[in-house]
Amino acid sequence: MLIQCTKKLLDVIERKPVTYEEENLLFSWHANLITLNRRKTVVLVNDKNRYVVVLYGLKARDFKRLDEIILNAIRLTLLDECIDEDIVDEYLRQSGEIVYGKTKNSSYVGKLNTACNIVPYYEELLLDNTIYQTFVSKIASRYWVGKQEGGRYISPGKEMLKDLEIFAGRPIFKCKAVELKVTLQMENHNIWRRLIVPLNTTFTQFHKVLQAAFGWLDYHLHEFFIYGDEMQDISFINHPAYNKAGYKPVVNLVSYDEDFDYLREDGIERKLEKGIRLSEYIPKYKRLQYVYDFGDNWRHYIEVERVIEDYDKNYAICVDGEGNAPPEDVGGEYGYDKFLEIISDKNNPEYESTLVWGEYQGYKDFNIDEVNKNIKFVYDSFLL
């Protein structure tokens, strides 16, 4: 594997560059050293498809074993793309040992600089507890970039997946996933979705998947509760984590740092959802609750129905569902009942205005094909 470094990076790693020409550009990368949050960061860009791999918070001792770290970073990032582990291992085997060279020409340096300008957009998503920034790598690789040949724009992430499929000569996706039934808890309505979700999905992404599945517009705050097997006591009935099944939460995942300013003395561990994946809690715990819009208080009870060991996609899908989700800001279940009453009566003087308002607020009939199109977009764009 050829790593073509900027002078800045070569000086830090103290390696003498060799003259080497990699025939297969899929095994060739350019690399630069930048600083983010006052931490040394290495950005790697694949010469074939402009795929990005990010290493963050490198210390002096890490540069002495950079070969190992680069190979592990590429491996972990491709596995996080849900690429079959056998294909990833074969790619690294055929890549061979790492050799370091100088940057090739201004064209490749320009592509490298573009990636180095993209990565800082997502520095708030960088994790402090690991060098390997697989999530930011995937996001940066979804950023559409210009390509001189033909003047078209490409998504490096999609291009890398195409190249690996050609390399492997077979379908490339294989990962662990779960089938979940998500039920919107309402007294008078039966509204639910059945989803299959890769376990490496972050809770931030999962929030977006749920938004797409129920047609919400992400106007409001949200949080997750993870439930164990212990039952709640009666004093929990007015708690935000209360659920009819009666299970007590073991952890509360929140979406903003400001959520920690509001203290609840309930003994439930509270964590920021940033960077946390479903696999950290599922399938160990089989029950969750997703609360969206603390005003209307839409509670979604989530149950793990089965674990899939060899899921053949790198994104979630909706496989079944029923019922139209309420529009945004309708005023909870009572407001939704009133809304339905108005739009079912064409003689109601508020019929036309309410119908238009509902459409503006995202209200529409459940359509599984449209839901899956919107879920796929979450993964393709890493919408956050």
TrEMBL record:
Q: What InterPro entries has UniProt attached to this entry?
A: DUF6933 (IPR053864), MM3350-like_sf (IPR024047), Plasmid_pRiA4b_Orf3-like (IPR012912)
Coiled coil ranges? none
Question: Where in this chain does the record put each DUF6933 domain?
Answer: 2-158
Query: Where does the record place the Plasmid pRiA4b Orf3-like domain?
Result: 177-372
Q: Provide an example Pfam family for this protein.
A: PRiA4_ORF3
Superkingdom of origin: Bacteria
Tell me what this protein is called: TnpR protein
> What is the organism of origin for this protein?
Thermoanaerobacter kivui (Acetogenium kivui)
